[in-house]
From TrEMBL:
Its EC number is 2.7.1.26, 2.7.7.2. Belongs to the ribF family. GO terms for biological process: FAD biosynthetic process; FMN biosynthetic process; riboflavin biosynthetic process. NCBIfam families: PRK05627.1-2 (NF004159), PRK05627.1-6 (NF004163), ribF (TIGR00083). PANTHER family: RIBOFLAVIN KINASE, RIBOFLAVIN KINASE/FMN ADENYLYLTRANSFERASE. Catalyzes the phosphorylation of riboflavin to FMN followed by the adenylation of FMN to FAD. Pathway: Cofactor biosynthesis; FMN biosynthesis; FMN from riboflavin (ATP route): step 1/1; Cofactor biosynthesis; FAD biosynthesis; FAD from FMN: step 1/1. It catalyses: riboflavin + ATP = FMN + ADP + H(+); FMN + ATP + H(+) = FAD + diphosphate. It comes from the Bacteria. Gene3D superfamilies: HUPs, Riboflavin kinase-like. GO terms for molecular function: ATP binding; FMN adenylyltransferase activity; riboflavin kinase activity. This is Riboflavin biosynthesis protein.
């Protein structure tokens, strides 16, 4: 899969079969759409392509209260590569000028001239252009390409959508989120230097940088992390850390079991397996340490039972 930022005409690419969307989380609905796109592209002897936007348009329009982002652009690229269903990923910058582009101009300038779409697959609720005036009727009237709509994908009777995944994560239902995603929910980021308080109380943590202001979930969790020395289980806190911090910045702190390696500067992917509890404020460090010990014991018990199930 090749990734192109902005107008790709300078690369001399061929015409393509295309789909459009934010694909936040790359959940089962997205995966089914890309599988259908791949089949249609092969039938037409065209490369399969995805057009997505950065930042997420909802982040652009609600800057003061942006929705929780499920995946960073880096993780989105990773998930798409792992699927192996598309040839080209086009990433367009979503800014003020792009947001005011009329729907007809988007069709003519972006879909026809820049991307050379010959087949277009969209979701059944897809809207685009200034004031969201573009829709399936407008696209299907364009003679330059064939447009088809993909119906919603149901997972155990539930519509797979990024909004629903966010709701499951916010409610702590990681099992439901995993069903909709087709994998455990994960966040990735680089390990940064922090206050190093954890090592002084017997629980050293990797402080993982969060690239977005608002995470999709909060609390204390059982996690798995791929390290340079293999996959390790642990316990993680994602939130404001109110006992020892007064800043409004969210923090992801991961304590790995039986691991003493140096992770500073490394990028970690943290998979969230089970929520143990909500975040809480404690009156002193003694109470905090006692709770961390209980969390660690619960996490180890869960990971042991998981290993037995998978054996």
């Amino acid at each position: 899969m090749q990734v192109f930022l902005g107008d790709p005409r300078r690369f001399g690419l061929p015409a393509c079969a295309l789909t459009i969307g934010n694909f936040d989380g790359v959940h089962m609905g997205h995966q089914n759409m890309l599988a259908r796109l791949r089949a249609e592209a092969d039938a037409r002897d065209l490369p399969a392509a995805l057009l997505t936007f950065e930042p997420h348009p909802r982040e652009f329009f609600a800057r003061s209260q942006p929705p929780a982002r499920l995946s960073t652009l880096r993780d989105k690229v990773l998930f798409l590569r792992q699927l192996g269903l598309i040839d080209y990923l086009f990433v367009y910058r979503f800014n003020h000028g792009f947001s005011r582009m009329a729907a007809q101009d988007f069709v003519g300038q972006v879909l026809v001239e820049q991307l050379q779409a010959r087949y277009l697959l969209i979701g059944d609720d897809f809207q685009f252009g200034a004031d969201r005036k573009g829709d399936f009727r407008l696209l299907s009237a364009c003679p330059g390409f064939v447009t088809e709509a993909m119906p919603s994908v149901l997972v155990q009777g539930e519509r797979a959508s990024s909004t629903r995944v966010r709701e499951c994560l916010a409610g702590g239902d990681l099992a439901a989120a995993e069903r909709l995603l087709g994998r455990p929910y994960q966040l990735s980021g680089r390990v940064m230097h922090g206050k190093k308080l954890g090592r002084t109380i017997g629980f050293p943590t990797a402080n993982v940088h969060l690239p977005h202001r608002k995470p999709a979930l909060q609390g204390v969790f059982v996690v798995e992390v791929d390290t340079p020395d293999g996959r390790k289980g642990g316990v993680a806190s994602l939130g404001l850390n109110p006992t020892v911090s007064t800043t409004p910045d969210y923090k992801l702190e991961v304590h790995l079991f039986d691991y003493a390696g140096d992770l500073y500067g490394r990028r970690l992917s943290v998979r969230f397996l089970k929520k143990l509890r909500d975040e809480a404020r404690y009156d002193n460090l003694t109470e905090l340490v006692a709770q961390i010990e209980r969390d660690a014991a619960s996490a180890k018990t869960y990971l042991t039972s998981l290993q037995r199930e998978q054996a």
